[in-house]
TrEMBL record:
The gene is rluB. GO terms for biological process: enzyme-directed rRNA pseudouridine synthesis. It holds the Pfam family PseudoU_synth_2. One of its GO terms (cellular component) is cytosol. This is Pseudouridine synthase. Residues 1-64 form the RNA-binding S4 domain. Keywords: Isomerase, Lyase, RNA-binding. The keyword Calcium does not apply.
Length: 240
């Protein structure tokens, strides 16, 4: 197996991150630095990243209802609670598929499968990520329409999105809008609403491809079934 694939399979990094690690000289096979992405790994080889050995584990997939106030990473240098801390009995080295902000709640998949992660987060595969946003102000078709064509976020136009106005509360001057996107850029949903003049004050992800949060309260998690995993694979439009 090629070295970049081997690292992704081991769940240590996505395939793209694995390539960076290799190119930057962090990876050794049997003690020798490899910087060629095409290098083949044999079952008997000892592969290390910055001196720590990596092993190919069984692939596992979990669905978490992330509460607010938890960060979407594997560890935190300030010792804050991470999403991985919420699944203490999982022994494999899982990490989140994409990120939700500290103050965003909702659906998050965690896995040690780098190829699966790449497939789920790449915008060309058009996996729906559905968010429920409470925004300050009155949402109308007119002010939301630009979201369906794309708005400028961090100097780049977003891909067309779908919206559905769930509720408008004129008295409290706020609205609830469902937004479906295929990308996962930093703070993307908040920034998209900001572009159309609406500030998000509460955000939750309610759907990811074929998955929703039925039966899971904030902080709860469960294993995905084989069927659910294959449905997610099938939801990718560039299915390979
Ligand atoms: N968009 C955001 O702004 N925040 C998230 O957590 C997810 C998507």
């Amino acid at each position: 197996m090629r070295i970049n694939k081997y690292i992704a399979h081991a769940g240590v990094a996505s395939r793209r991150n694995a390539e960076e690690l290799i190119k930057n000289g962090h990876v050794t096979i049997n003690g020798t630095v490899v910087d060629n992405l095409a290098t083949q790994v044999k079952a008997s080889d000892r592969v290390e990243i910055d001196g720590s050995p990596i092993y190919n584990e069984e692939k596992v997939y979990y669905l978490l209802n992330k509460p607010r106030g938890v960060i979407s990473s594997v560890s935190d240098e300030k010792g804050r609670k991470t999403v991985v801390d919420l699944l203490p009995e999982v022994r494999e080295r899982i990490y989140p598929v994409g990120r939700l902000d500290w103050d965003t709640s909702g659906l998050l998949i965690l896995t040690n499968d780098g190829d699966f992660t790449d497939k789920m987060i790449h915008p060309r595969n058009e996996i729906d990520k559905v968010y429920l946003a409470r925004v300050k102000g009155i949402a109308t078709k007119e002010n939301l329409r630009p979201l369906t064509r794309g708005v400028m976020v961090d100097g780049r136009k977003t891909k067309p999105a779908h919206y559905h106005i769930v509720k408008v509360d004129k008295e409290k001057n706020r609205s609830v809008v469902e937004l479906t996107i295929h990308e996962g850029r930093n703070h993307q949903v908040k920034k998209m609403f900001e572009e159309v003049g609406l500030l998000v004050d509460k955000l939750s992800r309610i759907r990811f491809g074929t998955l929703d949060l039925a039966g899971l309260r904030p902080g709860e998690f469960r294993k995905l079934s084989k069927k659910e995993i294959s449905q997610l694979h099938n939801a990718a439009i560039n299915n390979k």
